[in-house]
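pipeline/complex-builder :: batch 7 item 3
reading input block
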Amino acid sequence: MFHLESVSKQYQQGDNTVSALDSTTLDIQRGEFIAIVGPSGSGKSTMLTLLGGMLAPTAGKVWFGGQSLYDLTVTERAELRRLKMGFVFQTFNLIPYLTALENVEVPLLLRGDSKSNQRKRGLELLDQVGLGDRAHHKPSQLSTGQQQRVALARTLANDPCVILADEPTGNLDPEMRDQVLAFFDEFHRSGKTIVVVTHDPEVALRAARRLQMTASCVGAELPHRLAKAA
Amino acid sequence: MNFFTLVWKEIRERPTAMLTGLMTITLGVAALVAIRNVTFFSERAVAKELEALGANVLVLPKGVTLQDYYSADLHGQTIPEQFVQQLAFSNLEGVENLAPKLCVPARLNERGVILTGILPQSEFQAKAAWQSANLFSKHKGCKKARCVTDEGGTNSLATKRTVQELYKHEALLGSDIAAATGLKEGDKVSLLGETLVVSAVLPTMGTVDDGRVFAHLHTVQRLAKLGEVVNCIEIMGCCEDVAQGLLTQLGDLLPGTKVVTIAQVVQTQVSINRMMQRLSWLFLAILVAMAGAGIANSTIANVRERRREIGTLMAIGASPRFVSRLFLCKSVLFGSLGGLVGYLLGTGIATTLGSQWSGMSVTPLPMLAVFAICGATLVSTAASWWPARSASRLDPCVCFQDS
């Protein structure tokens, strides 16, 4: 599904060049559940944004479904995200002035769905994450766990084939974390490709494949028993 | 949910920012509409006055300074009535009529009024017939075929500044005085110790004449014990072409007087109108710059405040065009609403204060609404264009930054 070909990313900070990702070659197969683990500043989020078509690499190519992602225009990449990708954020990133239902409807609005379709699908998804009775609550009226579940429903709204998650359990208590991870397992079983960036060994253990990142480099794949220590 | 729900809900989320933006546009438009409204009606009033009285010339005592054509006789200084006859029989080309006036203060039903003595046209005609003289002659090539005697009745005082017939025991009441005192045609009134009969109530003219009482010139002279004098002589030219020529001829004929045309009298107003018009363009430029800067500033602040939201929208597939439309739609809404409210406010100010301060009738100008709404929308959209564009170019990676 994804193929990274000698991809690197450097930032310019004044006179200094900072390397966020050193030359990396990587393949991610359709239907895989991958966890990218590593300390802060190791380039995990850079990797995720590169995969999401939101950050052009300094060198190399990112292929998605046989298409060179950064040879597409900004609008074409936005369309690709709209139709094929779903994002899960650490801080949920719900739109504060919209209700839970309207937040779930946003990707459907972007896709051009009719109002009635948006409503039907939105309520369906909220029911799926157990928040059917909170459809008309604003994010500020929901607990953090509920907010993340609304965000998950939003991620699933356009039925993406890839889910890119950035520390999805970072702000959750253990109980909520288990609930969210259960949803990830369900997504994986339904055939979606999942790439999760995490510090959390529990999350990493749920993934079928774990990649260790250190100092801007994708290191060796971690075997299951080492993932806990990572 | 549709696109406008998204825009509207965001506006409602930040009502202070919305009100500030809206107020900037509204006040700017209101000021402009009020200025344009007053200027428009002021110009129209002057043009109307010039059209109606453009050919008229005033003969005044030398030391008089004039502010208003209609109160040209309210200054207390006099010239001999003999000048009227001198003018009538001088055979000046283009003189169509003469209206000498003498004003004195009087009391009517416990109310202070201005009693104005006027000379009816019938007296000129009688004198001309008696002296076998030609009274008034048109200038060569004059295309204006009008004659004061064509129109009788009291309406002629409003339209031609003269009346055909007025007996020495009669009085004419201005509409305001009649309304205030309840007097009507046929009633008797006591003025300066003499009883006069109201021969007519004049139609409303919209000038100081509405507050006057008119009587025969010789009656007023006798009652006021001022002798054979007048405060001014109004000369009705047959057409505007003669006004300038008459100035020279009258100056030679009556050397101790001041001779002015209506155009000279309204010159000050014309200059003020011109200045107001120029100022309104200057205000327009300043207000456009200020409103534009205010809107741009508020849009920039809005973009900054919503960086994370924009990043999230872009991550879930919003195109740059969609993002810029979110901000431009808001600007269009503010611009059109601000333009409309500003138009209503400005028109309200102009119609109430304009008539109170300048005594001029100001009515709403619907065309200004179109200009106000379109102009405000255009300025608002143009001012938001750059911030909206920068929002659409925002790096979507901001959505991954921890709050």
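note: The CA atoms of residues 100 and 135 of chain A lie 5 Å apart.
queue -> next item
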